[in-house]
């Protein structure tokens, strides 16, 4: 990957992580957008995980850690994998769908973690359902934040690529190259 493009992508992700430090509504965060951008745009898959996770870790050092950090980081890594799907589909509809899927994935995984690892809910199906129902009021902010930050990051990258064409990178083609339908 071109060093300049690597630095631009890393800078966008780090800038998004810094936004976690300013006051914001609960669950209105750039996490999904950071992971999606990393998965979609870093050519080397290791950087798709390392850069967003490192930015998340740095911001967590300042915000503070909690018992569900492994679950949050695990969901974050899974969302980066959704970004891999975007590599050949970086247009508005697939990006929007991936952001919504990322919101749902984060909701399902982290609230399962709250139920499984915490002591707020009984370890029964009813306890699990109660946990998910209790989290519904926060999901609206999750979805809005994920969509807003996804537009900011992917849109920001598109603008940068328009202003600096040398930073453009062709879409990653699937193995075997293009096909005809």
Please give a structural write-up.
The protein has one domain (3-167). It starts with a helix and ends in an 18-residue tail after the last helix. Helices cover 72% and strands 0% of the residues. The protein has 181 residues and is mainly α. It is elongated, with a radius of gyration of 17 Å. The relative contact order is 0.17. The chain has helices spanning 3-19, 31-41, 45-63, 69-86, 92-117, 125-163. The model is unreliable at 177-181 (pLDDT under 50).
What's the helix and strand layout?
Elements: H1 3-19, H2 31-41, H3 45-63, H4 69-86, H5 92-117, H6 125-163
Attribute tags:
disordered C terminus; 181 residues; 6 helices; mainly alpha
* N-to-C span: 30 Å
The DSSP helix count reads 6
Low-confidence stretches: 177-181
Structural class: mainly alpha
**What fraction of the residues are assigned to beta strands by DSSP?**
under 5%
- Count of domains: 1
Query: How many strands appear in the DSSP assignment?
Result: 0
The SSE string, one letter per element, is HHHHHH
| Shape type | elongated
Helix fraction, binned, reads over 70%
Radius of gyration over all CA atoms, rounded: 17 Å
What is the makeup of the main sheet?
Answer: none
Q: Mean pLDDT score, rounded?
A: 92
């Amino acid at each position: 990957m071109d060093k300049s493009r690597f630095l631009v992508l890393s800078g966008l992700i780090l800038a998004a992580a810094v936004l976690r430090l300013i006051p914001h509504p609960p669950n209105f965060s750039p996490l999904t957008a950071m992971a999606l951008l990393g998965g979609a745009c870093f050519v080397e898959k290791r950087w798709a995980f390392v850069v967003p996770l490192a930015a998340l870790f740095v911001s967590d050092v300042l915000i503070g850690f909690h018992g569900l950090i492994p679950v949050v980081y695990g969901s974050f890594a899974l969302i980066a994998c959704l970004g891999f799907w975007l590599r050949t589909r970086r247009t508005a509809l697939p990006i929007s769908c991936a952001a919504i899927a990322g919101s749902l994935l984060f909701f399902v995984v982290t609230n399962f973690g709250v139920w499984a690892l915490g002591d707020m809910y009984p370890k029964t199906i009813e306890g699990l359902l109660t946990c998910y129902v209790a989290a519904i009021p926060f999901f609206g902010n999750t979805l809005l934040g994920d969509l807003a930050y996804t537009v900011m990051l992917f849109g920001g990258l598109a603008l940068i690529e328009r202003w600096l064409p040398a930073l453009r990178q062709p879409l990653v083609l699937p193995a075997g190259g293009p096909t005809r339908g």
